[in-house]
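User: I'm curious whether this sequence folds into something compact or stays loose and floppy. Could you predict its structure so I can see for myself?
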Amino acid sequence: MDFNENFILGCSAIGAGLAVIAGIGPGVGQGIAAGHAAAAVGRNPGAQPKVMQTMLLGQAVAETTGLYGLLVAILLMFVKPLLP
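Assistant: Here's the prediction. I'll summarize afterward.
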């Protein structure tokens, strides 16, 4: 293994670590959404089905960011397209 190959592998590992950080945003956003939904259901229990439906849809959309980050990290760690 020469310097270039080690450098590419090291940069791939750093990039994978940075890509996994993308999971922080969806986690915080989903927690905030669940908290606001719980407060809304507490104020108006009759609206619970509509609030839950909207919250779950929003959380599913927010989770895609974290999943894309995980996918990028897996690709960077296990697929080495830049190596000769």
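Summary: The chain has one domain: 3-78. Residues 3-78 form a domain with the F1FO ATP Synthase fold (CATH 1.20.20.10).
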